[in-house]
Amino acid sequence: MEFSITESQKLIQQTVRDFAAKHIRPKMMEWDEAQIFPVELFKKMGETGLMGILIPVEYGGAGLGYFEYVTAIVEVSRVCGSIGLSMAAHNSLCTGHILQFGNEMQKKKWIPKLASGEWIGAWGLTEANTGSDSLRMRCVAKKDGKDWIINGTKNWITHGISGDVCVVLVRTGELLDSRGITAIVVEKGTPGFKAGKKENKLGMRASETAEIIFEDCRIPEENILGEVGEGFIQAMKVLDGGRISIAALGLGIAKGALDASIKYSKERHQFGQPISNFQGIAFKLADMSTEIEAAELLTMQAADLKNRGEPVTKQSAFAKYYASEVAVRAGTEAVQIFGGYGYTKDFPAEKYYRDSKLCTIGEGTSEIQKLVIAREILK
Ligand SMILES: Cc1cc2nc3c(=O)[nH]c(=O)nc-3n(C[C@H](O)[C@H](O)[C@H](O)COP(=O)(O)OP(=O)(O)OC[C@H]3O[C@@H](n4cnc5c(N)ncnc54)[C@H](O)[C@@H]3O)c2cc1C
Q: What angle separates helix 39-48 from helix 7-19, to the nearest 10 degrees?
């Protein structure tokens, strides 16, 4: 594995840093307070190339790899976790699923619009009663001639309201049968497909999370990705890649929390000196920094395997689990270092603290990552 940062990574890092400073930082607290999902920002991110990093050039992307993709998510999330989460869900889940399992016609139809940011993508696996235990899903699709009719509800769907296209996992076979789930693409505006309740969240408030509802929603069979009954296996593979992006999200949040903490600890004086002079504070910074380096190595290791097309289940679970927990610890320590100011919305620490917690939940909780890791090492 190559540890030095490549030229394309450096370029992406600087481009995204400048973009985030100009277009995200000035507005992010307004979006966070009002739970506004900034659709226009997404179009701009698309124009800048941030929705097509992993997409081959023939479908309108940059044709780059996971090092560049991780770098971009880290830099966005260093400023705002919400935008990092939405970027990860759009790219890894929706676009990633179509790219990995769609046929040529499907890729040509949807990927260029997703890669350019013209369309926003969503991905629906979770339901109200089935999160970790997704094989028990109740949302069904039944065959009717050449079409499929979907009925049911999906919950916690990122871009459930604003998404133009959604890859939805539905039951087409028996309950608990891993060959009984199918992936279908549903476009916004299809009769019988609508958004439901928008969640009012602790953190990641500018990333839209909503229910989506299917009532006799008729979808042509050409919208099925891969074969009928392959959806669960596809979803697990999509999540293997998606977890690298959540690791990057956690890493970015942790780096942002550390940046803010270093700056503040040098500026804030108590007992006649900067608080960074106190070993109690300096050691917190040292711990945060060490853990961030370790999380980065795990994330880049998973990215490296993904670039090579090798199995990544264990390494993406390592990276997701560790980087998420590091993000939560960094967010917590940042609030502590900021003291009372850390508890207010005038300073950045509280947002890192709130946003970080999602990383240990979305795309498989920390407990589920440990199950995945244990299963892999006990094989
Ligand atoms: C902001 C946000 C965005 C999201 N975006 C999407 C999206 O775009 N698409 C989508 O499909 N889903 C999305 N989700 C859903 C997310 O993936 C689920 O919330 C997550 O998988 C956990 O499921 P759950 O919430 O039902 O928790 P549960 O599965 O009910 O888990 C509750 C607790 O039990 C623990 N637990 C469960 N099973 C086990 C076990 N076997 N062993 C040990 N502990 C266990 C869990 O770790 C957790 O601590 C999103 C969620 C959030 C909060």
A: 150
The residues, any chain, with a CB within 8 Å of residue 309's CB and separated by 6 or more, are: none
**pTM of this structure:** 0.98
Atom of ligand 1 nearest to the CA of 363: 17
pLDDT digits (tens, 9 = 90+) for 91-116: 999 999 999 999 999 999 999 999 99
Q: Give 168's contacts (C-beta < 8 A, 6+ positions apart).
A: 123, 124, 139, 150, 154, 183, 184, 185, 186, 212, 214
Could you tell me if 290 and 217 are in contact, meaning their C-beta atoms sit under 8 angstroms apart? Answer: no
Task: Give the mean pLDDT of 335-344.
Answer: 98
Q: Which residues does a 6 A CB cutoff place in the pocket of ligand 1?
A: 89, 123-126, 131-132, 156-158, 201, 204, 209, 358, 361-365, 367-368, 371
DSSP string, 290-346: HHHHHHHHHHHHHHHHHHHT---HHHHHHHHHHHHHHHHHHHHHHHHHHGGGGGSTT
- pLDDT tens readout for residues 315-332: 999 999 999 999 999 999
Closest-CA residue, ligand 1 atom 45, reads 367
Q: What are residue 167's DSSP bridge partners?
A: 123, 185
User: Chain centroid to CA 241: how far?
Assistant: 10
